[in-house]
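S., here's the first fold you wanted:
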Amino acid sequence: MQAGQDSDCNPSNAGGVLFATLGFSKLPARFSEKLDETGVFSHTAYNFPALIDVCDSLALQAIKKEGGFVRDVDGVPTYFIPQTETKPSALASCVAPSEELPSDGAAIRFTEEELKQIKFREYSLEELTAKHFNGFQVSHMGPDMNPGFRAEYRGRQNVLMTHPELREIGAVVSKTVVQTAKSTLVLEVSHHLTKDVVGDYLLIVKLNGETAKELVVSKDSVGADGWLTVEVPLSQNAGKETKIEIVNQPNGWSWEAAYFAKIEVVEK
């Protein structure tokens, strides 16, 4: 909330407290009828029911930590929460946020043992693309629709989502290879799809700057599983270096993201 860049946190927190007080079953239908309970939130493995389960578990841990408990009352789990005095924190301004932490470390909510278990490494998009797609690299990516890797999309794992930089400049996935007479570029591609939005885009494959394949990827071109396999023979440049460019080109400017589950040069 202190960042000051938008205002969505405040109404979200207020709405969360209000709706939790009312109960999901008592909400007006307009607040729940369009919930997509199967879709997975970006950068997570959680859909809506799984997220609720995690939140419920964390809430119970917090209640117990403060001396509360849960009991079955007439077949309904009932939470007993101790009443405590509210101690408001000092007012912090988004233009002059405080960087001070309590000297006793009270701001840290993890134990020393828990902190030792928290290990992570940040990977760049370039590193992930090269790792999962055997050295291919991305360029001319725009920020719209939050491009990057998706842990899961339409039944595939580790999916790369790209978005064009501008209306006139498509996102590019590229690599220079030396292939044989049997080399073939194989792609598995999809388009953007949610409950309310269907996107499409123009897929262009270039070899040394020349267009070798061009097609629209949309709901009408993918299979029943939501994916389309595209194959491009590379035999015409056998024994020579070939720069492969896979272009996610806009054919409008609405939901132009491309999804790649496979980018591979194989021998056939």
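And the second, which I think is the more interesting of the pair:
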Amino acid sequence: MHLDAQDFRSFYYRSALGRVAQRRIRDKLLTMWPENAKGETVVGYGFAVPLLRPFLSTARRVIGLMPAPQGVLRWPAGQPNVSVLCEEVMWPIDTGVVDRLVMLHGLETSGDATALLDEAYRVLGPGGRAVFIVPNRAGLWSRSDRTPFGYGRPYSTGQLEAQLKQHGFVIMRHAAALYQPPSHRRFWLRTGPMLEKVGHGVPSIVGGVLLVEASKQVREKPKSGLGEAVKRPLSVLEGLGAAKPTPSRRTGPDPDAAPTRHNRQGGQNGRLAMDVGQGAP
């Protein structure tokens, strides 16, 4: 189920809680990417444009993709538009040209998460990095429909990482954000920064959203063994070309050998000569 783009704008830009959520998630993203993607191509999908503003001045190109069922908004205000309306699983981006990808309000509301992750993998270049931001199924934000995080399918860290691995992504790290309750009351808004600091240091406190960073690692295709088989002779033929004749150590006839016809005839002639010599005067 996709929310309308107007609903996202009302939450993130016109409500105090939405501006707090935007700031908390963006700060966490910047801790994961402190270099600000200088000179790289950065793409956001879903409604990720609130998180892309820090990259406008440093990245080579910034693109905000918004799925057709959600609708599109012009962004950023007062600057050249970078928002693009697209099909959910057919992005107007060439294969392997994206260096950084941010997905917010895209995976949990998708009607075909498998095809969506395949498309995300396709556009990433070798070594490209992506951050997938989803509602935490154990957190408070996924249980309240007062925010966009209460819609769609929430995830646990293990579920999200397993799904990413099935599509070829390599998990790098994960984090959480939004430790304060999803309440518009001033008390929770004022104590939000303190709860955020405490939540990062106490494992038992569960954040409202999960951030999982993954990379695209392209494995080298194994080379065919035919080339090596042609270069190397068969093992059964090894050594045939290196054989050299060696002279025999025997210099005379073998005394144990059976007499041949030539030898027998020579012996008879010898005995005849001896007999004639003995009969001569």
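Why I say that: The CA atoms of residues 93 and 123 lie 7 Å apart. Residues 5-216 form a domain with the Rossmann fold fold (CATH 3.40.50.150).

Talk tomorrow,
H.
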